[in-house]
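Annex B. Sample input.
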Amino acid sequence: MEKLFTTDFWETVTSSLAHWLITELPSLVILFILFVILLRVTKFLIGKLKKILVAKTIHHTDEPDLEAEKRLNTLMGIVKKGATIIVWTLFIMIFLKKINIEIGPILAGAGILGLAVGFGAQELVRDFITGFFILLENQIRTGDVAIINGTGGLVEKIELRTITLRDLSGVVHIFQNGKINTVSNMTKGWSAMVFDIGVAYKENLNKVMKIMKDVADELQKDPQFKDRILEPMEIFGLDSFGDSALIIKGRIKTRPIEQWNVGREYNKRLKEAFDEHRIEIPFPHRTIYWGEEIDPLKLSMQKAEEMASQSSKK
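Annex B, continued. Sample output.
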């Protein structure tokens, strides 16, 4: 403790600090500046790479433009995160070396720790492997509408470990890739709206199907919807006999995610067309038949006569 109050001690501390500020601090500042520059350059290069890939992919493949863009956005998101992790790792290693901390034992310890974690975190490894194959096989992309394990929603984020969905109510669902059993992509390549239209048994089916086709053709000619509909409506015909209706099945192919907008507008126009042509859209109903009404006075008289006849026989 006495050395703390000596002049020699403080002179030594001051000279060491001055030497560190003169020799080491500038290199650390330069290292930090280079790190920031490297992060920005990495982000810029990934952006340029994305533009180049978009230019080479869109209009040059059989895949729709929107689908190609969604796929590139997903892949570039993974590449960007991977590059950021590599840059941060290099910066931390160089920084530790500059402040005279040996990184050899740290790397060795990290290797042993990684091996232990690998044995203990088999589920995590499975998530990463499954996520890799989901990306490799292009099963779903960011921006798709998908059903995962029975839960549907918009795919907001795809990572190597998890997939994030947001449903129509705004609820966010997060799934571990290794626990995904079923994936149903509702917006890959093209989408479709399937219609099951019920009409009364008395209606002329040929007339009804012609009205359905005419409404679909008018919708496809509408400037607001013509770019959303890929093909004219398909009328498959009478699909089933319902309890109170004949079910006619049809389908309209649309661009991805547009099937619901097109379907709602078609239903609205079809209802107006049915009203105009007096086509009945039935609703479930049933007929109840009542038995003969029983008079309570008549019933009591019949019982009294039966009792009297029994007593006379005795």
